[in-house]
Write a structure and sequence with these properties.
Blueprint lengths: L2 E10 L12 E9 L4 E6 L3 H9 L10 H5 L7 H14 L6 H20 L3 H4 L9 E7 L4 H13 L4 E5 L8 H15 L4 E5 L8 H11 L4 E5 L7 H9 L6 E3 L6 H9 L5 E4 L7 H14 L2 E4 L5 H11 L7 E5 L10 E2 L22 E2 L1 H7 L4 E4 L2 E5 L4
Parallel strand pairs: 4-5, 4-11, 5-6, 6-7, 7-8, 8-9, 9-10
Antiparallel strand pairs: 1-2, 2-3, 12-13, 14-15
The structure holds magnesium ion (MG).
Magnesium ion binds next to loops.
Length: 393
């Protein structure tokens, strides 16, 4: 096949709120081949900034856009996808947004090649079978402990046996308020479900503040404490681990290239590495991190706060490794979570687990009606000459 077109879509809810909620907008890429086949991908990054990386005029030999790198290229195999991912990375070496932006087309190429070869992506990555994952509902803390308790009860009623609460007021009021938020989440969920806590990078470089919380949160029996520190605070993560906190530490969603994830695992000493396929540069790089985590004895977990297209891209990467058993599962009510895939995205099965799709490519399809409904039409002109206009879905 040859890459004939790369269609770029910016979708957004009518109103964007200042909450740590990545399901309010998105950047989607559809790659179309000359044989009529297509693949879809999604990035977790600013849609307009990412779009620019596909169309911006050349600045010099290391700032050449992704369209220029990929249009007309041959793509028939996983090796072609890896080659093209590397080519786009080299063309866009000095685009600071490159790893985020290229993630969308990398995912779309894996989807396309899977459909072409009639194989699910996990098989293209070398796995023979998949293992169902335990989905944890991923939600924000309520503004108060009481509100948090109510949200937790709702998740329990929906049948989730694991849930993660994060951001919101965590770390912004007092130690006692932080402890009360976590205790309320545990109360609302009841005794059995697993509970994860996402601290939303709130203590920066302060491993002492993080340790103090870890000791208190342990009473609520949490599975992990996530991002108590800044994504780059690798030394502070190491100091925190050296204090031997009574809970396990998770981080990694901010990693936007392979070595940053490796650094957190090797030097930060984290227990769980959480990789966002739409930030770190797509399935190609996420697969490398997943294998490295396996080698190092770190537990790989997806980070996903987008649609079920993104969720599908995530699950194919670690579905083949049984011990990596968690799946972050966006559970908010944005129509850009479930509505972007047709008919429903990745369901939770009767055992409360999520199966990796066994259909060619990613195994989900994009709902074009949703894209139409939430599409923001973009038009970019330079000196009156049209550079880009949003395509029709
Ligand atoms: Mg997080």
């Amino acid at each position: 096949m040859k890459i004939e077109a790369i269609d770029l879509f910016y979708v957004a809810l009518p109103e964007i709120k200042r909450a740590a909620d990545g399901t309010q907008d998105s950047f989607l890429v559809r790659v179309r081949a000359d044989n009529g086949m297509y693949g879809w991908g999604e990035a977790d990054a600013s849609p307009l900034a990412s779009l620019a990386v596909y169309v911006a005029p050349m600045s010099h030999s290391n700032i050449i856009n992704i369209n220029e790198a990929l249009l007309g290229e041959k793509v028939d195999s996983p090796d072609d996808v890896r080659r093209l991912r590397a080519k786009a990375g080299a063309y866009g070496l000095d685009f600071e947004q490159i790893d985020h932006a290229v993630a969308a087309v990398d995912i779309a190429l894996w989807d396309l090649v899977g459909k072409y070869l009639n194989e699910p992506v996990y098989r293209l990555l070398g796995y023979k079978k998949t293992y169902p994952k335990l989905p944890y509902a991923s939600v924000l803390f309520g503004d108060t402990p009481a509100e948090t308790r109510k949200i937790a009860r709702g998740l329990k009623d929906r049948g989730f046996s694991a849930a993660k609460f994060g951001w919101g007021p965590m770390g912004k009021v007092s130690l006692e308020n932080d402890v009360a938020l976590v205790a309320a989440a545990r109360e609302g969920l009841g005794q059995h479900p697993e509970l994860m806590i996402d601290c939303g990078v709130v203590w920066g470089q302060d491993d002492g503040a993080a340790y103090e919380r870890a000791v208190r949160f342990a009473d609520s029996r949490i599975t992990w404490m996530e991002e108590p520190l800044h994504p780059d605070a690798v030394d502070a993560y190491r100091r925190l681990k050296d204090r031997k906190p009574p809970v396990r530490i998770a981080a990694g969603e901010g990693c936007d290239f392979y070595r940053s994830a490796d650094d957190l695992m090797m030097n930060g000493g984290i227990d769980f590495v959480q990789i966002d396929v739409g930030r770190i540069g797509g399935i190609t790089v996420t697969d490398q991190v997943c294998r490295r985590a396996d080698q190092l004895g770190v537990t790989f977990v997806n980070h996903t706060f987008k649609s079920h297209l993104q969720l599908a891209a995530s699950i194919h990467v670690h579905a083949g490794i049984e011990k990596f058993r968690y799946l972050e599962y966006p559970a908010g009510d944005s129509p850009l979570i479930l509505g972007l895939t047709s008919p429903t995205g990745l369901p939770v099965n009767r055992k409360g687990l999520v199966d990796c799709p066994d259909k060619p490519g990613l195994g989900v399809d994009v709902n074009l009606d949703t894209v139409r409904r939430y599409q923001r039409k973009v038009r970019i002109e330079i000196d009156g000459k049209l550079l880009f206009a949003s395509p029709d879905p």
